[in-house]
Amino acid sequence: MKQVGERFAGKVVIITGSSSGLGLEMARHFAEEGAKVVTNSRSEQRAAAAAEEIRAAGGDASPVSADVRTWEGAQQLIAGATSAFGGVDILINNAGISMIAPAHELDPAEWERAISTNLSGPFFCSRAAYPSMKARGGGVIVNIGSVAAHVGFPLRAAYCSAKHGMMGLTKTLAIDWVDAGIRVLQVDPAFIKTPLDVGDQATAGYDDAAIDRRTPMGRFGTATEVARTVLLAASPDASYMTGSCLLVDGGWVAYGYL
Q1: What is the DSSP letter of 226?
Q2: Going from the N-terminus, what domains does the chain have, and what CATH number goes with each?
């Protein structure tokens, strides 16, 4: 692994949902900057494969399989990080799912699944990480939101509700925990070319050309662009930032024309 810096040397970073996509890209970047990375998935095999990839490239990583949709799973995740590396300094709440259906046809069980994954999970993990961060003199929580926290999208009642709720969670935790030295931020990507987006296109009625036309910058974002923003938010360079939402959207939310 090419070491590009030491901004996070000695820091323990947990990234939920880090076996693929944005989460794995963030894990790679944190490891390149000297962090001890805890990879996570509900699948033990997938979490282990992500950690092995990072170690094979010269980084330091340990896997923890846990279902972060539950309080018990969140506690298991923090306990695993503590066992491996002694605690947690930075938590990236990245695990999430899409949920595409007309609101009048949305199965209540699917609503619950989207809310538990995209909103309850970040709260449970943050709450579970709080004692360790406070004991270590502070920490950083970065919630991975979406432009769907700022606007509405058709066919995404559960997803947009969860991401709007995450914004409220980010702001409230930032205020509640400022005296503990914990900063809380949210990074909100627009359309990023990941396996999740490929799956969404099959059911959400859009294609690459539609996103290119709608985005002022004329293209999808990349996982690397999101990861770099997350690292900035988690770094000492953002030491006076808390309770903020950082858009990584190519101008999507700013653009209100036809």
Answers
A1: H
A2: 12-190+222-248 (3.40.50.720)
